Structures are given as structure tokens and as C-alpha cells.
Amino acid sequence: MEPHRHDAWTPRVRTHHVFRRADAYAAGLSRRQVDAKLASRTWRYVVGNVMTHRDRTLTALDLVLAAGLARPGCLVLGRVAAAFHGAPVDLQGPVDIQIEARGRSVPSGFTGRLVSVDAPGITVVGGIARVAPRTWSYVDALATMPLGAARDLLAYLASRDLLTPQHLEEHLARHPRRRGNAQLRRLRARLLSGAMSEAEELLHTILRRSGLTGWEANVRIDLPGLRARVDVVFRAQKVVVEVDGRRAHADLFVDDRRRDAAFTAAGWRVVRVTWWDLVDRPAELVAQLRQILALPS
Asked: Which of 122, 210, 227, 230 has the most CB atoms within 10 Å of its CB?
């Protein structure tokens, strides 16, 4: 049987998992065979005329390469650029790319944005696409994503010292009229408050009402081999309180547990608090914290 007749077959291309009709033709398929794979949904379109296998879970790299195939030399922005630089964001939806003039058409699957990228560090990928600089991409994603998703991204970036209030201040100063500035100002205020998420805001409220003192929010702690930013810390008792919100930690289970292990090895106690603890059992949570804080460190 010819290899391309297997359901899982795709052309072997330098872009790994995304390809064009020309790549399929070069691999020996006819127009009719390509049409049949699309009609049977064995293959599906990614952006423009770029395809992938139906079972492929696309990565940020896949989307950047697909953008380069569909529009060679394009500059990828927004959440896909942020994901390319390591941010845990949802990749569903169109890919943002830079356009040079208003009204400039873009292929299907793209959103064209007339913005200037005035930061160094544009990354060239595969010789066919470019990605906006890392910190610029993080700020751009925060400005253009839905507010709930932006809050979750902010919590991730701030907890890892990847973004500071100064980054947001500088962006707002350079681009006073850019789309998304109102959202960036809200996120900056949240960053300055020390509460990176709705869950952390609720925890702070519970701690204040309980009368517990001696805690700090959004603090960086340096451990052997680890620099971590924690949600709440009681330094005197060496107790860290980490909030697992409704969304922010869903895909970070292993990372969180490694952090916990590093703190435990350094003599700290880590208390993990869920959204449901904060909403359904705040009194029990406070009692538990009082008990833990009273233990000898």
C-alpha cells in the first residue's frame, strides 16, 4: 500500500506538522487525493491554505510556522506569540499578525493588526515567520485577551517574575492610545495590589477580616536552585500559602508540586488553598492557618 493511503500519513516537510497543497503534491498526491482527505476530514485547515492532520493538537510553534507558510515573513503577535515564548494560554481562535496599512486583507484564520513593535528581540522561525519579542508579546496578549484569561496569564507571569508593573507602565507611556490600554491599567492595579487573581483577592479579604497579621502578598523567595514568587507568606513562621484558583493552576500541577517540594526541602511549610476553600469554608480555612502558624517552625 502506498504510504500516503494510510489515515495518519502527512507529507514529510521541514515545518513538521503543518503543510500546503504544494507539499502534498510534491509527496506524490494528486489534487483529487488532497481534496478527498479534506472532504473526509482526515486533514483540516489551520490558517489560510495551510493544513494539518485532524488528530494533531497544534502548538504555538505549529501556528507560527503555519502563519509563515500562509504569509511568508509575517510577524506573529498576541496570545500565539506569548505562547511561543512559554506562556500557558489557549491557542483556539485566529492568529494575530501585523499589517502595514489599514484595510490590508489577510488570509482566513488571521486577524490583522496595525501596530508598531518597538522592542528588540524579534525571533525568526524556520526562515519563514517572525514572532514579536517576549515581554512585548506578554503585554500585548494581556491587552487583547478576554479579561478573565488575561488575569490568569498575569498571575502566571508575575509569579515567575516574567512581568512587572514597570513593564506595563512603560508600554502605556509609549502607546497612550493603543487598543487594550484600559485593560492593562486594570491589570497593573491588580499587580500593584499583590492579588494576581480573584481568588487571591478573596484570600486577602479573609485574612484581613480574620485579624491574622504578619503576612505579605506576592513576595519573591530565593531558595537553593529556585527563585519563586508566592501568593502569601508568613515569614516569621516560614509558612507559604498558595492559591489554586478556578483556572490559573489547571495545567501547572507538576510545576506547582516541584515548587512545593523545594520549599519543603528548605524548611518551609506550604499550604495550598482552593477556590472552594475560600468560598465554602473560609472559617475552617482560618482555623487551619492559625493551627499551622502556631506550630514550631
From this structure: 230
DSSP run (H or E) holding 36: helix 31-39
Helix or strand (DSSP H, E) at 233? strand 226-234
Whether residue 142 lies inside any domain: the answer is yes
3-state secondary structure of 221: strand
Q: Which domain holds residue 237?
A: 198-294
Q: What is the pLDDT of residues 228-269, one digit of tens each?
A: 888 999 999 999 999 876 544 445 667 778 888 999 999 999
Residues 204 and 187 occupy one common structural domain: no
Give the least confident one: 50-54, 89-93, 132-136.
Answer: 89-93
Instruction: Identify the CA nearest to 49 among candidates 109, 115, 97, 119.
Output: 109
User: Please, which residues have CB within 8 angstroms of residue 53's CB and are 6 or more apart in sequence?
Assistant: 8, 10, 17, 42, 43, 44
Cα–Cα distance measured from residue 120 to residue 98, given in angstroms and rounded to the nearest whole number: 16
- CATH, residue 229: 3.40.960.10
Q: Say whether both 204 and 238 belong to one domain.
A: yes
The answer to the question of residue 177 being in a domain is yes
Length of the chain: 297
At residue 115, what are phi and psi to the nearest 5 degrees? -135, 155
Q: CA-based angle 196:200:201, to the nearest 5?
A: 95
- 244 contacts: CB under 8 Å, gap ≥ 6: 199, 256, 272, 273, 274, 275
State whether 122 and 174 are in the same domain: yes
Per the DSSP assignment, residues forming a β-bridge with 217 are: 232
Measured in degrees and rounded to the nearest 5, phi and psi for residue 71 equal -140, 85
Cell of 248: 490559573
Cell of 117: 513593535
The CB density around residue 60, as the number of other CB atoms within 10 Å, is 22
Domain stop point among 124, 159, 193 = 193
pLDDT digits (tens, 9 = 90+) for 12-44: 898 889 999 999 999 999 999 999 999 999 999
Provide the domain count of the chain.
Answer: 3
